[in-house]
Amino acid sequence: MKHYYVTTPIYYVNDAPHVGHAYTTLACDVLARFMRLDGARVHFLTGTDEHGQKVEKAAAAAGMTPQAFTDKVSQNFRALAKALNISNDDFIRTTEARHIKSSQAIWRAIAANKSPKGRDNIYLGKYAGWYAVRDEAFYGENELVTGPDGKKRAPSGAEVEWVEEPSYFFRLSDWQDWLIAYYETENPGFIGPVSRRNEAISFVRQGLTDLSISRTTFKWGVPVPDAPDHIMYVWLDALTNYITAVGYPDTKTDLFSIFWPADLHMVGKDIVRFHAVYWPAFLKAAGIAPPQRVFAHGWWTVEGQKMSKSLGNVVEPNALIARYGLDPVRYFLLREVPFGQDGDFSHAAMVRRLNTDLANDLGNLAQRVLSFVAKNAGGAVSQPGALTAADEKLLGAARNLLPAVRAELAEQLFHKALDALWQVVGDANRYIDEQAPWTLRKTDPARMSTVLYALTETLRRLGLLLQPFMPDAMAKLLDQLAIPADARDFAAFERALVAGTALPAPQGIFPRYVEEGEATAGKGGQKGR
RNA sequence: GGCGGCGUAGCUCAGUGGUAGAGCAGGGGAAUCAUAAUCCCUUGGUCGGGGGUUCAAAUCCCUCCGCCGCUACCA
Questions:
Q1: Residue A399 CB closer than 7 angstroms to strand B?
Q2: Is the Cβ–Cβ distance between A460 and A493 less than 8 Å?
């Protein structure tokens, strides 16, 4: 049986969920749903990252223990997944016992092995430098700016403090050659898109320095094995979630043996380095296979501006869903922008996609076909006669969509998959106009029947393939085509509609978005007569 | 500073040597099954500027301008 393991990053608990989180999770959800329908056993993981000094401080500020604080805010991300109709199989929290155990196990495994140059992978040293709690990162002296208040700040604007403490280091510098070989020879498709791959390669090529992987100045983290004064660096802890969730350190379980290495870690472009450089090195050092692929998507701006708390323009997923509906939002986010590039979320663009692609092109196609069948073909699947070249062409285009969409999604090209699907939506609209069943009704009822059959069959295939993107809307469409529950996966893609099957009364799937205050007659948009 | 990318129709972008493309927006028409939806036709670009190679350049080379990403660092 095919299998597919896809992960979102674990989200930092004290962030408020915004459209960026929704985007990442949504992309994974579409892949997970597609693979399940395509017959794969799927494990889809998301969760929350709950350790680190920032969380410790936020909890203190809220007058709570870190555990109570994270118990509370972690719910925000479970709620987000629910609101987006996400089909994750597991939700991991880094504060869970299974994860503490797993993180300590990977530490021990890394420490037990030698680097490619025969040295210890982990050694005790001392770290001294400027540290920004907010960024969870160290900065060089020269990067800092001194503000008018006399405080030193990182380029990000975060306050920094001088930190000098004993620290364990990971001998990343010895892994450079192995990483390059992994990117270029062993797994050329490891990082996508290509622009990010090039950046990662050039970063590794210029030389790697050893990485500080423990801290002693705060407590909220996973204790380093046999060194209780130290807690593990948040990123080593966080990345390990991907193997925790499939049972590590118990590598003999079904979960681990079936699903590891992961097929895809979906990430935002800001965390490519952690996933594409540190993570494979940590894993290899621990004697564990690295993941198959890391894909970094872009950022959303809003109405042309960067999203930020200070601008007050952070887009909350719930607000979008309330305004436009869940499935239109899901569609928009994956259709509007070439996946991997940055994009802009604007009300105008959202409405354009909703009204043009969903209401006019697809929704209206379904409505005109199904209501015609209801009124003029006895409300049942029509009996086809001999097929003409035009019929074959439409049906063939619809049939070819499965391999086409499968190929695009194998490379996370959501926008291209949707574009291919909409080509056929257009084909069907052209076909119905050319065949004009409303004329055939009077002149050639048998031919009309064949035309309606070809159209409903095309709708069936479109509905099946669009389920991963818009599960609720496509369930409605497939209901209206009387497709039984056991005929909605891709194994049933060739199981054509049966003539004579009664169809329920058609209902609109995608209502048009009408601006507030705009009359139902529209304003000046009327063409022709 | 180094490496890389981008700059093509009003907007978003595709197109990597051989007569400039798509979607949306704009204009005209057809049809009337349908969510005032659909279909057809159409306006529109000296492909950032300049120079070069070539029979031929959006496409290759040089240079300049503008924007962006990664990364390094200076006095």
A1: no
A2: no
- Asked whether strand B has any atom less than 7 Å from the CB of A117, the reply is no
The ipTM estimated for the assembled molecules is 0.93
CA–C1' A267–B40 (A): 44
Alpha carbons A493 and A487: distance in angstroms, whole number = 8
Query: Given the structure tokens 């329908």, which residue do they identify?
Result: A37
Residue A266 has pLDDT above 60, yes or no: yes
Tokens coding A375 = 């009124």
Kindly state the percentage of chain A with pLDDT values over 90: 83
**Residue A81: Cβ-neighbour burial (10 angstroms; 0-12, 13-18, 19+):** buried
Residue A528 has pLDDT above 60, yes or no: no
Provide the CA A82 to C1' B13 distance, Å, integer.
34
Do residues A138 and A130 make contact, with C-beta atoms less than 8 angstroms apart?
Answer: yes
CA of A179 to C1' of B75 (A): 36
- CA of A359: nearest nucleotide by C1' is B35
DSSP of A54-99: HHHHHHHHTTS-HHHHHHHHHHHHHHHHHHTT---SEEEETTSHHH
pTM greater than 0.90 = yes
Q: Which of residues 425-464 of A touch strand B (CB under 7 A)?
A: 426, 429-430, 432-434, 436-439
**Could you tell me how far CA A97 lies from the centroid of its own chain?**
27
3-class state of residue A270 by DSSP: helix
